[in-house]
Amino acid sequence: MKKLNILCLIIILMISLTGITRAQDTTMTPPQGMEDTTMQHPDHHGGMMGEMGEEMKEMHEEMMEMEMTGDPDYDFAQLMIEHHKGAIKLSEKQVDEGEADSVVALAREIIEDQQDEIDSLEEFVDNHEPQKSDDTEMTGGGDHLMKDMDEMMLQMQEMEMQEDQDHNYVEMITMHHRQAIKMAENYLSHGKDENLKRMAQDMIDKNQEQITKFDSWKMTHE
Description:
This protein is an all-alpha fold. The chain has helices spanning 2-28, 37-65, 72-97, 101-127, 143-158, 165-190, 194-219.
């Protein structure tokens, strides 16, 4: 009888140990094909932010390292050239990887518009001798512009990226456009060259029109 009881206890103990081992295996080893699902999303988001954010970081650094001349027209043109290059890089990525036809079409439009403006701005810089101004709050020379740029970069870094290239592009290019509008509006208050001022106003109008289109797209793609 004692031998039977001992045998029963041994069997129960073996069954218990087998159950614990299986539970541990289930906890530590996810089913095949789902090994790192919980980690993939943050990495994926971070990767997308890394690719798109890196373009903005380069633009930001280029603008911050530029030597301002004190001429509001010349400095605005230089800064806007670099700013436009950032928008083109973002838009080229959207053209390559985007899925929403309407957003890709807008990205192509931005590339074309801003490349044309870069060409005009570069022509202005090449043919304009900088004239120093006493206006310390002019565009590009004041601390307010650099503060705005820093704030834009911080907002981009804090953006919640999604597994959706279209959504991420719309969010970042909208923020980028709003920064361009602020720069152009500030320039209009201090600029002197009439042709460049007309170009700045055209930038404001185009960017605002495109922001409105992006906002409309977001409303139907939440």
